[in-house]
């Protein structure tokens, strides 16, 4: 047993020594970025897919579990590929120009976004829309910090909330096809299914009756 463990300890020591080498730091950061992207993507998507699948999708248990696994894999893979691409391009640009400049981040992320998230599918669409909402908030705050727009005298969030909810419900009621499918499903459950019932079972216990009464 002890003899078999020695090569493993030697391998671990060699790996740890390699990780301390500054010359390989950029390449190792790209690899760890790939790892972190895969893990984070799985952590984010798995619970979301689990809830959304069992709330809104029909089918057998096997089909639902397969759908959850596929969504989790796609999110994890895409985020891993993106982080790998982004950090790789950042390292390459910094090496070519001898320093890091702000444009490097924008350019690397644009290329990564085009290559990894350019396919218009439900997973990529959700991720891009998630980022878009946060970008709008971030740019608004940046504009205030830089003095491009004056500091609001009152918190603008109540007005933003009113406009967002007013717009999304108007779209749902009159232009539903423009909304993302998962949002349509959520709003159908909240605002349309709540208008249909037959007895106490599908009024309080279930959303919809499953029998033929």
UniProtKB/TrEMBL annotation:
What domain of life?
Eukaryota
Q: Name one GO cellular component term.
A: peroxisomal membrane
Q: What is this protein called?
A: PXMP4 protein
Q: In which organism is this protein found?
A: Ptilonorhynchus violaceus
Gene this protein is translated from? Pxmp4
């Amino acid at each position: 047993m002890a003899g078999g463990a020695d090569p493993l300890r030697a391998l671990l020591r060699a790996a740890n020594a390699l990780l301390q080498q500054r010359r390989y730091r950029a390449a190792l950061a790209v690899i760890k970025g790939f790892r972190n992207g895969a893990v984070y993507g799985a952590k984010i998507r798995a619970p979301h897919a689990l809830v959304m699948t069992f709330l809104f999708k029909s089918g057998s248990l096997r089909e639902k579990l397969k759908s959850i696994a596929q969504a989790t894999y796609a999110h994890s893979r895409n985020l891993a590929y993106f982080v790998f691409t982004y950090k790789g391009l950042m390292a390459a640009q910094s090496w070519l120009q001898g320093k890091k400049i702000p444009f490097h981040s924008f350019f690397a992320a644009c290329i990564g976004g085009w290559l990894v998230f350019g396919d218009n599918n439900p997973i990529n669409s959700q991720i891009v829309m998630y980022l878009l909402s946060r970008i709008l908030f971030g740019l608004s705050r940046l504009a205030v910090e830089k003095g491009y727009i004056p500091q609001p005298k009152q918190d603008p969030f109540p007005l933003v909330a009113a406009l967002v909810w007013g717009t999304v419900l108007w779209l749902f009621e009159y232009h539903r096809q423009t909304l993302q499918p998962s949002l349509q499903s959520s709003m159908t459950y909240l605002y349309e299914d709540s208008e249909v019932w037959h007895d106490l079972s599908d009024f309080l216990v279930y959303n919809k009756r499953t029998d033929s009464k």
